[in-house]
Design brief:
mainly alpha, single chain, 82% helix
Length: 100
């Protein structure tokens, strides 16, 4: 399923997410939409993507985040496809390097 198809199928969700302007607004919506476990899993996937982009090995990422190798493989495939993770995390990683 492409990004375009996802937004067509979940157009209201995509519109709501696009309208949010602060981390606090996003947190409030995510808290209402997701369980604590779902939020933890999403955070784990994003942290894993960052670590992979930084050059960490699968073993290092699994040890550091507790993510399963199956899920990490999905994250890695998504990184290679050049979709969301790459777009969203490149700027984040760069700003973190500049801050430190």
């Amino acid at each position: 399923m492409t990004s375009h198809e996802i937004c067509q199928n979940q157009s209201l969700l995509c519109k709501m997410l696009a309208s949010l302007q602060t981390p606090e607004e996003i947190a409030v919506l995510l808290k209402d939409l997701c369980t604590v476990k779902e939020l933890e899993q999403m955070d784990q996937r994003i942290r894993s993507a960052v670590l992979l982009m930084e050059g960490k090995t699968y073993t290092q990422v699994c040890e550091e985040t507790g993510i399963s190798t199956v899920t990490l493989s999905r994250v890695s495939r998504a990184l290679r496809s050049g979709e969301g993770y790459n777009r969203l995390l490149q700027d984040y990683i760069q700003s973190e390097k500049e801050t430190n």
